[in-house]
Amino acid sequence: MITGLLPLSEGKILVLGGSGFIGRYLRARLAGHMGEGQVVATYNGAPFPGGLKFDARAEDLRQAVPGLEAFSHAVILLANAHPDDCARNPEASRVLNVTAVKAIIDRLTESGVCPVFASTEVVFDGQKGGYVENDPVNPILLYGKQKAEIEAYLENHAPDALILRIANVYGSDPAGSGVVAGWHKTVTGGAETVKCAHDYIASPVHVEDVAEVVIRLMEGGRRGIYHVAGPQPLSRQDMFETLLEEMRRTGSVEVVSCSIDDFPTGEKRPRDVSMRPDKLMAATGMEMRTLRSACSDLVAAAA
Ligand SMILES: NC(=O)c1ccc[n+]([C@@H]2O[C@H](COP(=O)([O-])OP(=O)(O)OC[C@H]3O[C@@H](n4cnc5c(N)ncnc54)[C@H](OP(=O)(O)O)[C@@H]3O)[C@@H](O)[C@H]2O)c1
After folding, report:
1. Which helix (H) or strand (E) holds 12?
2. Which residues have a Cβ under 8 Å from the Cβ of 39 and sit 6 or more positions away?
């Protein structure tokens, strides 16, 4: 039986994949909220102080993380999170994203720990956009199919789990990960032209907002599916032009508008995978930050 009903101050939190982009922010935010001792996090290839080594393809969660019963929630971030890599390596990515994650879910439910699963916007086919939580999933990318398989597994084996369909995540650390910081490096590196897709639309969400809503959802004892998305649908070209405006570099960099199909992606990409965060905002009381304000913060941080 899943408990997961302990207030966060009473149960510990396990972050599986704490060394990744989202994991680093979530660990820091959780430690500030609950105290270092209440948060345990794992890594595979990228160690960090206090982290537990866990290769989910080769080890049993119970051996890697003793005393699972002490945790109220386990946030499952570990994954091969690169759609093209999943498409190129279907069997290897399945071992991690499906087989290993199902085994983790089994161990968690046996121990009464609530799984908090990081799913994705690409469980949708991109035909409609503006997706809400009860829209039917229909993934066209292998990565999205793997995530949708886990969502279905949770429905059957851990109906009280929390499923977070996370949109494209970016941050405002100029030295950090995510598409916006990457573009900032490209522009400050002197690029004269940048190719951007006008027909790939998503609802980019700030990594610090992701960390904050995960905590609020766990604290509120929430269950079921939430769309963790930014406040507005934006094409890649809209996003890049917003960054250029905040950098006061409009006109000095040529934006070459193109189709997402002009990029060498392993599989044809869905078009509009934007999701609505209304349910999330109502449940958490969070206002999701706009891309413009985050770009402004990034530019200020880089100055
Ligand atoms: N970032 C996004 O835009 C986004 C959007 C939607 C959904 N998501 C989902 O959110 C989750 C976190 O994303 P992210 O961007 O933080 O990913 P990331 O930076 O690629 O991090 C992946 C994490 O998985 C761990 N990992 C990889 N192989 C492993 C293995 N064999 N055993 C155990 N751990 C392993 C990595 O550990 P090491 O680094 O130590 O090897 C790392 O901690 C993923 O499930 C992703 O699908 C992300």
Report:
1. strand 12-16
2. 12, 13, 15, 27, 30, 31
Do 154 and 242 lie in a common domain? no
SS3 label, residue 164: strand
pLDDT of 7 > 70? The answer is no
Query: pLDDT tens digit string along 70-96?
Result: 999 999 999 999 999 999 999 999 999
Tell me how far the alpha carbon of residue 150 lies from the centroid of ligand 1, in angstroms: 15
Kindly give the distance from the C-alpha atom of residue 119 to the centroid of ligand 1, in angstroms, as a whole number.
11
What pLDDT is stored for residue 107 in this prediction?
A: 98
Query: Is the distance from the beta carbon of residue 118 to the nearest atom of ligand 1 less than 6 Å?
Result: yes
- Whether 21 lines ligand 1, by a CB cut-off of 6 Å, is yes
In a domain, 5, yes or no: no
Please check whether residues 45 and 164 belong to one and the same domain.
yes
Q: Does the pTM of the predicted model rise above 0.90? A: yes
Residues 81 and 189 in one domain: no
> Does ligand 1 lie within 6 Å of residue 204's CB atom?
no
| In contact, 224 and 279? CB cutoff 8 Å | no
Residue-range definition of the domain harbouring residue 17: 12-170+205-230+273-284
The H-or-E segment that residue 22 falls in is helix 21-34
Does residue 3 have a pLDDT over 50?
no
Q: Of all atoms in ligand 1, which is nearest to the CA of residue 47? A: 40
Are 85 and 142 found together in one domain? yes
Q: Worst-scoring range by mean pLDDT, 34-38, 100-104, 123-127, 275-279?
A: 34-38
Q: Which two tokens stand for residue 136?
A: 């039917």
Q: What is the pLDDT of residues 153-177, one digit of tens each?
A: 999 999 999 999 999 999 999 999 9
- The answer as to whether 96 is a domain residue is yes
CATH of the domain at 127: 3.40.50.720
Q: Indicate whether 145 and 221 sit together in one domain.
A: yes
Q: How far is CA 139 from CA 83, 230, 266, 269, 291, in A?
A: 12, 21, 15, 10, 26
